[in-house]
């Protein structure tokens, strides 16, 4: 995003917000794809400087569409999927299946069957039930499934309680301390239909420091040392997950991607050399940190309500149906009016409300903006991750369109839903007599 002082209009990818809205309407998810490119290159280039084998896998749960998956392929990224739907999206996008990593704590037999048939690059296995299904289906198809074991290293990132996933008490992964992970490793190593690539961990989300990654790698290697001694096994791959923080408001101070990469690489190299192991291929899984800041949501302001000495509400034509994070996580966002007023214009502190029939549908509790009116455009920044991907049809609200913009050009990549789309799967009532 940029603020063109001459036109006094915010632009996204070199296109004014007004032009985007005139073309596609509101609410509208608008992505500056140059930001996506720069973020992806920052991770990839940092690894290249380290001269090691690596994969940067885009965590598509953050934002998954055919166009986004195709862009990920153009950028040289691998792809992390967590469902049959995300896998199907990758297939429709023509993404190379050997660069797909399949996550999830409850993969169905149908999903496992489809993934093996497509020849994906890796299953990130989460539990013994999955191991059993994967082994049986691999044998049935006469194939060998590559496996990473997801483990819980007992390291908790300093992040929101709802999105901390690396501690021992988690629905994700094999527990290291209780010996589950080693039992799983033995099962895989003794199974001709499975191939153990290595270990995976994910310690949380929206992380602004590197200490947790260093600690998690130390924990992984303390167990890999034991596995080398007792199982004669060395990991080919160590995947340290994602969770790299982004800027939502001025209170957020994210680190440059290269800082995370260099810290992770150094920790893995140091541990490998100390224990006399070959340096494995290192994988990471940025999602939010690639697309989050690239996306903005443009709304049209509607009603206004003033409660003297309490709050001044502005309501917009979207809300929790297109961005559930404020209601779910108490997530904070920054915003601006699309057409910037002069500095001497009256400033007002507003509460930005959504249009859903829920008192909790508040996008921003308090933000100071130039005085606004019905029909003005409001841009909420950094909605590129978990906006569209978590959108719903609550209140039978149609999901917004998605547009990519770059270099002054723009392209529709997801059509706006229609009322007909909302009822296309509904069936008429039939007599039960």
Automatic annotation (TrEMBL):
<feature type="binding site">
    <location>
        <position position="386"/>
    </location>
    <ligand>
        <name>pyridoxal 5'-phosphate</name>
    </ligand>
</feature>
<protein>
    <recommendedName>
        <fullName>Diaminopimelate decarboxylase</fullName>
        <ecNumber>4.1.1.20</ecNumber>
    </recommendedName>
</protein>
<keyword id="KW-0663">Pyridoxal phosphate</keyword>
<keyword id="KW-0456">Lyase</keyword>
<feature type="modified residue" description="N6-(pyridoxal phosphate)lysine">
    <location>
        <position position="61"/>
    </location>
</feature>
<dbReference type="InterPro" id="IPR029066">
    <property type="entry name" value="PLP-binding_barrel"/>
</dbReference>
<keyword id="KW-0210">Decarboxylase</keyword>
<comment type="pathway">
    <text>Amino-acid biosynthesis; L-lysine biosynthesis via DAP pathway; L-lysine from DL-2,6-diaminopimelate: step 1/1.</text>
</comment>
<dbReference type="GO" id="GO:0008836">
    <property type="term" value="F:diaminopimelate decarboxylase activity"/>
</dbReference>
<comment type="similarity">
    <text>Belongs to the Orn/Lys/Arg decarboxylase class-II family. LysA subfamily.</text>
</comment>
<feature type="binding site">
    <location>
        <position position="386"/>
    </location>
    <ligand>
        <name>substrate</name>
    </ligand>
</feature>
<comment type="subunit">
    <text>Homodimer.</text>
</comment>
<dbReference type="InterPro" id="IPR000183">
    <property type="entry name" value="Orn/DAP/Arg_de-COase"/>
</dbReference>
<feature type="domain" description="Orn/DAP/Arg decarboxylase 2 N-terminal">
    <location>
        <begin position="36"/>
        <end position="291"/>
    </location>
</feature>
<dbReference type="InterPro" id="IPR022644">
    <property type="entry name" value="De-COase2_N"/>
</dbReference>
<comment type="function">
    <text>Specifically catalyzes the decarboxylation of meso-diaminopimelate (meso-DAP) to L-lysine.</text>
</comment>
<feature type="binding site">
    <location>
        <begin position="285"/>
        <end position="288"/>
    </location>
    <ligand>
        <name>pyridoxal 5'-phosphate</name>
    </ligand>
</feature>
<keyword id="KW-0457">Lysine biosynthesis</keyword>
<feature type="binding site">
    <location>
        <position position="243"/>
    </location>
    <ligand>
        <name>pyridoxal 5'-phosphate</name>
    </ligand>
</feature>
<feature type="binding site">
    <location>
        <position position="325"/>
    </location>
    <ligand>
        <name>substrate</name>
    </ligand>
</feature>
<feature type="binding site">
    <location>
        <position position="288"/>
    </location>
    <ligand>
        <name>substrate</name>
    </ligand>
</feature>
<dbReference type="Pfam" id="PF02784">
    <property type="entry name" value="Orn_Arg_deC_N"/>
</dbReference>
<dbReference type="InterPro" id="IPR009006">
    <property type="entry name" value="Ala_racemase/Decarboxylase_C"/>
</dbReference>
<keyword id="KW-0028">Amino-acid biosynthesis</keyword>
<dbReference type="InterPro" id="IPR022653">
    <property type="entry name" value="De-COase2_pyr-phos_BS"/>
</dbReference>
<dbReference type="InterPro" id="IPR002986">
    <property type="entry name" value="DAP_deCOOHase_LysA"/>
</dbReference>
<feature type="binding site">
    <location>
        <position position="329"/>
    </location>
    <ligand>
        <name>substrate</name>
    </ligand>
</feature>
<feature type="binding site">
    <location>
        <position position="358"/>
    </location>
    <ligand>
        <name>substrate</name>
    </ligand>
</feature>
């Amino acid at each position: 995003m940029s603020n063109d002082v001459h036109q006094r209009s915010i632009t996204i990818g070199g296109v004014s917000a007004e032009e985007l809205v005139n073309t596609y309407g509101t609410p509208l998810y608008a992505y500056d794809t140059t930001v996506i490119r720069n973020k992806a290159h920052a991770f990839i280039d940092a690894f290249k400087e380290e001269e090691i084998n690596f994969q940067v896998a885009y965590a598509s749960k953050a934002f998954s569409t055919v166009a986004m998956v195709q862009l990920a392929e153009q950028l040289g990224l691998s792809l992390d999927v967590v469902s049959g739907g995300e896998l199907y999206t990758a297939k429709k996008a023509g993404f190379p299946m050997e660069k797909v990593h399949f996550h999830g704590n409850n993969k169905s037999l149908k999903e496992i069957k489809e993934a093996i048939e497509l020849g994906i690059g890796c299953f990130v296995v989460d539990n013994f039930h999955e191991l059993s299904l994967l082994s049986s289906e691999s044998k049935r198809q006469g194939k060998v499934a590559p496996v990473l074991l997801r483990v819980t290293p007992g390291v908790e990132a300093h992040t929101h309680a709802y999105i901390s996933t690396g501690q021992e008490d988690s629905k994700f992964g094999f527990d290291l301390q209780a010996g589950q992970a080693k039992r799983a490793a033995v099962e895989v190593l003794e199974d001709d239909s499975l191939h153990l690539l290595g270990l995976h961990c994910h310690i949380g989300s929206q992380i602004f420091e590197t200490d947790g990654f260093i600690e998690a790698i130390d924990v992984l290697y303390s167990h890999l040392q034991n596995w080398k001694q007792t199982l004669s096994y060395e990991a080919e791959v160590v995947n340290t997950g994602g969770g790299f923080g982004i800027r939502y408001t001025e209170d957020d101070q994210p680190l440059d991607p290269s800082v995370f990469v260099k810290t992770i690489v150094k920790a893995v190299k140091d541990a490998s050399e100390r224990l006399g192991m070959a340096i494995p291929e290192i994988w990471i899984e940025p999602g939010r940190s690639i697309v989050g800041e690239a996306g903005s949501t443009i709304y049209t302001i509607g009603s206004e309500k003033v409660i003297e000495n309490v709050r001044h509400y502005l309501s917009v034509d979207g809300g929790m149906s297109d961005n559930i994070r404020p209601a779910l996580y108490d997530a904070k966002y920054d915003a601006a009016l699309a057409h910037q007023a002069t500095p001497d214009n009256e400033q007002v502190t507003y509460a930005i409300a959504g249009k859903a029939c829920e008192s909790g549908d508040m996008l921003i509790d308090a933000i100071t903006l130039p005085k606004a009116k019905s029909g003005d455009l409001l841009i909420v920044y950094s909605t590129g991750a978990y906006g569209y991907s978590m959108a719903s049809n609550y209140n039978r609200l149609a999901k917004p369109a998605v547009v990519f913009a770059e270099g002054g050009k723009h392209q529709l990549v997801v059509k706006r839903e229609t009322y007909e789309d909302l009822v296309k799967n509904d069936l008429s009532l039939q007599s039960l007599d």
